[in-house]
Amino acid sequence: MRSGIHKPIRRTMLGLALLGMSVSGLASSAAAEASKVRFADQIGLLYLPMRVAIEKKLVEKHAKEAGLGDVTVEVSQFSGGGAVNTAILSGGVDFAAGGIPPLLKLWDRTKGTDTEVRGTISLTHMAYKLFTIDPNVKTIDDYVGIQGHRIALPSVKVSTQAVTLAMAAEKKFGQDKAFSLDNLTVSMPHPQAYAAMKSGSQPIKSHFATLPFSYQLVKEIKARQVFSSYDVAGGSHTGVVLYNTKKWKDENPKLFKAVVDAFSEASQWIKDNPKEAAELFKNSEKSPNTAEEILEMISDRSEVEYRTDVRGTLIYAEFLHRTGDIKNMPTSWKDYFWESVHQFEGD
Predict the structure, then answer these.
(1) What is the pLDDT of residues 324-338, one digit of tens each?
(2) Which of 27, 33, 297, 330 is exposed most, by the fewest CB atoms within 10 A?
(3) Rg of the chain (C-alpha set)
(4) Which residues form the signal peptide (predicted)?
């Protein structure tokens, strides 16, 4: 009799236990975050925080501290904002490192969707500099009507260099002439553009460069600077940021924070250990520059600062909106950056 009473109770308890295990398993599955993070990287000292985060395994470190276990990191290298944007839109990478204009164009294109793209954290403030070896070019005016002369930059129309050139043309020649120098531009990775300038035998007579290539252009081939993005923007500005989609951020909240924390640590590590940072860059990029030269570059705050706050970006948004390259005019820089950097003052 007692056995007859307890059998249904035991079955009920067993059933509840199995149900609990099933529900727990479903909840655990639903809460699972990615076990891999894929980054799109580019060339040059603009991307030093990426190299530090990767080489020192900071993403893996912060993911483990967040209770996410062993996370793997993959890095693919691209040249120019166009290729980077294609990679993130196609789902080929989770985070892209690129300039403000490519970010703004992606944000505008994806705004209000599950795949909306916004900035994650700022990596670098750096001047983009236009150099020439053409003795007939001294100012931007001298590009008008020039023959047999091409300006190399990472991506025509899309890259920060391309947009800065258009901004400079608008400032000098008027709004209807903003793109009047675009016919001179060609897409070319920095190493090839530098080599073309050094040879002197190609139509590439100007190179819109960043460090370390801007340093080499002056030191090795005595190229002359025409102007910089700081001239056009009216001061220093954020050069490169990390950005990602809303979908990935929402599906991986702990891992998203781990990435932010990793790049924050990378930025601080560069400031605290500039000599080691220079050596790390030389070794990871197989740079032809000496570690001493790289240290000289990254120690000059008029040239570069590794900062996580956002500065001088709205002027790019205003230009892109004014010229019809983006439809949505942001009311604040926070419109195209995630809350991960909203604690900072910025523009």
Answers:
(1) 999 999 999 999 999
(2) 27
(3) 24
(4) 1-27
- Domain assignment present for residue 282? The answer is yes
Residues 6+ apart with CB under 8 A from 211: 44, 45, 46, 126, 297, 298, 303, 304
Residue with tokens 């080599």: 195
Asked if residue 64 belongs to a domain, the reply is: yes
- Among 233, 258, 274, identify where a domain stops: 233
Whether residue 346 lies inside any domain: the answer is no
Q: pLDDT tens-digit profile of 172-195?
A: 999 999 999 999 999 999 999 999
Long-range Cβ pairs for the range 60-66 (8 Å, 24+)? 61/262, 62/257, 62/258, 62/259, 62/261, 62/262, 62/265, 63/37, 63/254, 63/255, 63/258, 65/258, 66/254, 66/255, 66/257, 66/258
Taking the CA atoms of residue 269, residue 273, residue 279 and residue 284 in that order, the dihedral angle to the nearest 10 degrees is: 0
**Structural domain range at position 300:** 34-126+236-341
